[in-house]
Amino acid sequence: MQYISTRGQVKPKGFIDTVLMGLADDGGLMVPVEVPAVTEDTLQKWKTLSYEKLFLEIFSLYINDEIPQEDLRELVRRSYSSFRTPEVTPVHQVNDSLYILELFHGPTFAFKDVALQFMGELYSYVSKKQNKIIHILGATSGDTGAAAIQGVRGKEGIKICILHPHQKVSKVQELQMTTVDDENVLNLSVKGNFDDCQKVIKELFADLDFKSKYHLRAINSINFVRILAQTVYYFYAYLQINKGEQLPKINFCVPSGNFGNIFSGYLAKRMGLPVNKLIIATNENNILERFVKTGEYKPGDFKMTHSPSMDIQVASNFERYLYYFLGEDPEKVSAYMKELQQHGKITISPEDLVKVQQDFAAYGASNTQCLELIGDYKKSYDYLLDPHTACGIAAYEAEAGEGEVTVTFATAHPAKFDEAVRLVDIKQPFPPQIEQLFTLPQHQKIVEYDKAEIVRELETFYQL
Ligand SMILES: N[C@@H](CCOP(=O)(O)O)C(=O)O
């Protein structure tokens, strides 16, 4: 298996080089030259596999022999040993048509742990094998940062710097990142929003001199390994629900910000998973909903919502979808991305919009609706939704058809977003791992949204 860039200017790379490259050197995103096909027979065989074994099967299709099987097995074992359930991502049945895939059983209580605990182990493995330093640079609207830091804190040969938007993440998200006192961790709290943070890091990854001088590595979903690790739970959820001989199609409904999680579902579908609808759920920052409904991809005004992890306008992985949607044509992708940069928007033709609508449905929940659903589901099903999952439920209710079965992703534990949950008069007990964070000192540097200042902080940290 080889990997190329969506913009076509990178020579094919193997798996490890692709992981280390993160953002493609031509500014695009890395994708496999060919998506491996999973047949119905294979799916039948995978039905009885544990999460870890399924992970190994799927990864083996993508990594050639670059990591020996026994090493990979050990990396996977270590990655998921910190999860609070052996199923890693258990499925909860709400009623005949709705299942909730709980993705919050990892150490930082959000779906990001599923890929990032593995990435932490992988980076550590590569750093030791190649005897090379890994300097991680990432941007977060709250969950990625916490999970990435947790995945590499205290690990030799690795330093991590995470940019988060100052006072625009939840209190628990902030504490999860900033109470870590390991010397290999730097938190920059940027006076801006998530899009500002992501813009700075993308510019730094695109500066190839800076990137190679400081051995910059990515943990965001621009990194293909994040996407791949997230495909595993689509297969796992599907196989948990469909135990019988029949393999019917089901919907997946995914709270979405940077388009990484839902793109993993798109990849799973291209591999052969019987997916009916992929439903994109957004909050009031609804660029993805507007794109699917109108064909115009245009960042709007940033809004602060009850689901801060999805307070995103410019969705990184949209470019990966464009690549497939445009028939794997890097020239067309480059032209569209240029248009976005120059004119601030992309508009596709009505014929192309029909194709997009065959791939995705989309719905953006208002703040009011999000809170209402948290209250309703607690009352009707005694199930406490976090505000991101509540946006997912809103999209499921709006977009799933009669008689269809839908798996909606619970992307975070409600305790991470207690500010929102309290607004519906629900008092939840904090898990002890979260409760104890409130007693710890915080370590972070508050900086202006100013690339030069951020670079100075980074250079000092990486050189130490
Ligand atoms: N919602 C994310 C934003 C970054 O997305 P990623 O999937 O590219 O890491 C967060 O919580 O940080």
From TrEMBL:
Its EC number is 4.2.3.1. Keywords: Amino-acid biosynthesis, Lyase, Pyridoxal phosphate, Threonine biosynthesis. It comes from the Bacteria. Residues 2-80 form the Threonine synthase N-terminal domain. Its cofactor is pyridoxal 5'-phosphate. Pfam families: PALP, THR4_C, Thr_synth_N. It catalyses: O-phospho-L-homoserine + H2O = L-threonine + phosphate. One of its GO terms (molecular function) is threonine synthase activity. Pathway: Amino-acid biosynthesis; L-threonine biosynthesis; L-threonine from L-aspartate: step 5/5. Belongs to the threonine synthase family. Catalyzes the gamma-elimination of phosphate from L-phosphohomoserine and the beta-addition of water to produce L-threonine. This is Threonine synthase. It comes from Paenibacillus medicaginis. The gene is thrC.
